[in-house]
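Notes continue from the previous slide.

Worked example: a multi-chain complex. Inputs as given:
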Amino acid sequence: MEGFEVTKNENGGVAILNVKGYLDAHTAPALESAFQELVDEKKFRIVVNFTELSYISSAGLGVFMGFIEDIRKNGGDIKLSSMKPKIFRVFDLLGFPTLYDILDEESAAIEKFAKL
Amino acid sequence: MPKTQKKYQIKIPSQADNLVLIRDLVSRVAAQVGFDNDEASKIELAVDEACTNVIRHAYGNNSNEVIDVLIKIDAKKLTIIVSDKGKGFEPDHVAVPDLGESIRSGKKGGLGICLIKTLMDKVDFEIKPGLKNQVKMTKYLS
């Protein structure tokens, strides 16, 4: 999809979603599809790496809200890593840090699953 | 009242793929009038949220409708007015979302108005459903 890309890989039993570009109302469905595929494959341990994401609106944040309950009920979690300050600010303004693990590094997010 | 020095206006189809164009214009104008990157990105996001609300809620994703974005610049402030002729809403009834409750109930939205109010210095709503709904957002130059 123009302006946004999501790629998947796996590290130690944790699914990694790498998001790139602009995550808004137009591109959010692409991320929803990626989450849905993971849920369908019963992969509930998920880290989203934001290194290459340059913009997010509440439509993008809504995707994380839509899947988290289902994923946690299945013993998993969505952990978020490597956000630019501009991206973190949007999550922070809406209170996400109290409900989601947001880590500086992808490796730290993966380690959090190892401690579960 | 300071005299408006410049105005820009775009009328653009109510489609989510146009958000990038609207954001591009708004952030460039904000930078041009002297807002730093941080402030310009707040203005850009607030306008995106207002336009997303129009696309999704006022017009229910009907791309035949039009969003009107008017940008006014004067010496002290930038004002952006996003207007539509769709379904209105009661701005006073839009509560600050309880994120935990939204997640438990599977609700994904409701964050946009909260963000707009947080990001901008002044926000006014004028809601006349089907006639003209308007969100007027102001950011002062410091």
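Summary box: Chain A has a mean pLDDT of 95. Residues 4-110 of chain A form a domain with the Transcription Regulator spoIIAA fold (CATH 3.30.750.24).
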